[in-house]
Write a structure and sequence with these properties.
heterodimer; A: 126 residues; mainly alpha; 0% strand; flat; B: 179 residues; 4-stranded parallel β-sheet; 6 helices; globular
Chain lengths: 126, 179
């Protein structure tokens, strides 16, 4: 019996779960509670976009050209590809032929993608 | 300056517990965590900067977080001359504040137009929005601004949940053309 106290049982950890429930419960209760405790006045003027007290002009949700985004994301893609080249290039001799083949396997799909975006005209600015 | 101590609200206390009204606890919490929106247009604003800085340190009263968006502000602090052209802008800022909201007019200009008794200056911001506390002075020293904040805290602490739905309050807002 003297061993029983030393052996930890999974029931002993129930306090941790209770703590998690209390912590989450407190946060959720307070977040929901504030919505009921606080007074509300949802007038059209209050719900307008805040423009430092001036009337807002136009809509913030305008369509705009995403060319810059596309170029930027493609740059990041190939930039990361180039980063992988550096350690490979440093250890080129040690890696030998198998290293070269592995790199080809890595580059081939990306090169395929590169031809695809060029064909699609993603890099054409005008 | 001595440390300001906040008294606990009236409570029914027993062994390790205290019972009070929710209103009082909420009032206590609100009063000691006011987020001011400084609407500073002239020299009273400079005095307000001193109030926020180390010597006077408004942060001691739970107001260290200034909000430059009305969405998160509880207290609109109007400090300085408000020209008539600025009136509608001030009103719009007030309208877009979160509920419940309080207004403090700091200095003679915001309270009454001050020395600028001219065609172009609003003769007190209470012409366009309801004001809770007026701080006199031209400009008022930081102590006066702190006193005004403490007065606001008293108002906040003792505000009932019903006040913002009362007929009097609705009539007050209606008087300013605010729905």
């Amino acid at each position: 019996m003297e061993n029983a106290a030393a052996v930890s049982q999974s029931i002993d950890y129930i306090a941790i779960f209770v703590q998690f429930i209390v912590a989450a419960g407190f946060v959720i209760t307070v977040i929901i509670g504030t919505h009921y405790l606080g007074p509300k006045r949802k007038t059209s003027q209050k719900l307008q976009a805040f423009e430092c007290g001036l009337d807002s002009i136009g809509n913030a949700r305008l369509p705009f050209d995403f060319k810059y985004f596309l170029i930027a994301i493609l740059f990041v893609l190939f930039d990361v590809e180039v980063i992988f080249f550096y350690p490979w290039a440093v250890n080129f001799r040690e890696l030998g032929q198998s290293g070269f083949v592995k790199m080809l396997v890595f580059v081939a799909p990306l090169l395929l993608g590169y031809f695809y975006i060029v064909k699609k005209g993603a890099l054409k600015w005008d | 300056m001595a440390v300001v101590q906040t008294d606990a609200p009236e409570m029914y206390t027993g062994e390790g517990f205290g019972l009070t009204r929710l209103e009082k606890i909420v009032g206590l919490a609100r009063a000691n965590s006011i987020w001011p929106l400084p609407f500073a247009t002239s020299c009273c604003g400079i005095e307000f900067m001193a109030t926020m800085a180390s010597t006077y340190d408004l942060a001691r009263f739970g107001s260290e977080r200034l909000s430059f968006s009305p969405r998160q502000a509880d207290l609109l602090m109007v400090m300085g001359t408000i020209a008539k052209k600025m009136g509608p802008i001030l009103k719009q800022v007030y309208l877009q504040m979160a509920e419940p909201r309080w207004v403090i007019a700091v200095g003679a200009c915001a309270s009454s137009g001050g020395i600028f008794d001219t065609y172009s200056v609003l003769q007190g911001i209470d012409k366009v929005i309801p004001v809770d506390v007026y701080v006199p002075g031209c400009p008022p020293p930081p102590e006066a601004i702190l006193d005004g904040i403490l007065k606001i805290q008293e108002l906040v602490k003792h505000e009932t949940f019903r006040r913002r739905n009362s007929e009097e309050y609705k009539a007050l807002l209606a008087g300013y053309g605010i729905d």
